[in-house]
Amino acid sequence: MSRLRVHAFSVSLDGFGAGPDQDLEHPLGLGGPELFDWFLPTRTFQKMHGNGEGETGLEDEIAARGFEDVGAWILGRNMFGPVRGPWPDESWRGWWGEEPPYHVPAFVLTHHPRAPLAMKGGTVFHFVTEGIEAALARAREAAGDRDVRLGGGVATIRQYLRARLIDELHLAISPVVLGQGEHLLGGLDLRALGYACSRHVAGGRAAAHVFLQRRED
Amino acid sequence: MSRLRVHAFSVSLDGFGAGPDQDLEHPLGLGGPELFDWFLPTRTFQKMHGNGEGETGLEDEIAARGFEDVGAWILGRNMFGPVRGPWPDESWRGWWGEEPPYHVPAFVLTHHPRAPLAMKGGTVFHFVTEGIEAALARAREAAGDRDVRLGGGVATIRQYLRARLIDELHLAISPVVLGQGEHLLGGLDLRALGYACSRHVAGGRAAAHVFLQRRED
Question: Which residue of A135, B151, B155, B184 has the fewest CB atoms within a 10 Å radius of its CB?
Fold first, then answer.
């Protein structure tokens, strides 16, 4: 069966996956962009969003791995955009411009229905109001033999962890402290949920890359 | 002025510095010993406590650094022993046998007075009932030009962090999840307290070693 994977999810040394005071100007919260200092220079990121060639090497390989064998994405609503509550209209089309970096169906968790949104390059945003398990079922169906990647953010990953639905979780531990923000693992007993560290890789710009897997029941 | 340093303090990926259910048989709590899988094989540890020669290399150098230029230690009471409340007698003489690995004065934080305890090899345990600042003042006086090392445990480090008294904090991030236990940084805003990551070193058995410093006011 296809797996549910989280890749390149960056956390601070004190465990925050986003800074405080998120808004349109600060989608990652104050200090949040520092979490991605390892990711932005990679060739993988630069090919998607940047102008330069980007750096190759270990951290680029780790970043690229996150896009392999992915047949569908799941995104929390805040990862899709800053709009809260019912959609006032359909003018918000994501943070990424007309050609988002997904190129496969992407299922956005929301409490408010909205018609699917087909973007350039193969990304189609589907808005799922029936909860995380329904989103996963639809994403699995869309992905076929391939895996489903869960993008985030923090609240979404916590929901899927609690439900023991994530198979593999790659965390990039960034060498920064945020002090406040959205804490990824606070109050979650990962060990009781069946997770263990399967391997760790020395960081370059990141302090470390760690890979957690859920043991088979 | 001499600095207050924390070295080789091991935390899990989910931020715990000790496991749950600490007692005489489990001084580090359940799962806690896994935090030290990087430290136990080092030559530094083996020379102090073990039988073998131990491994040299980067992590041994990091471990050894923690003993350089140290003129006094500060220990939380639980790091000295499992006895809680008033001392029933003076029979508990620490976890380490007759020759503890400190070889300098070691100031133990406690609410209950006890006479100093001189051990083999130069360690003298002094029991300080006047709080963390008094312990630091006495340790600084004993250390002279050398630094003071703060051994732990979690509650003690949290007190000193909150008071902005730690100058340098080395955390060894161990590739394990504990799920429960004593969380080192929960509820502390390290950034507001003035701490930042000054450098990080790839781990070997540990996932990473990170060094936090408090900026000068």
Answer: B155
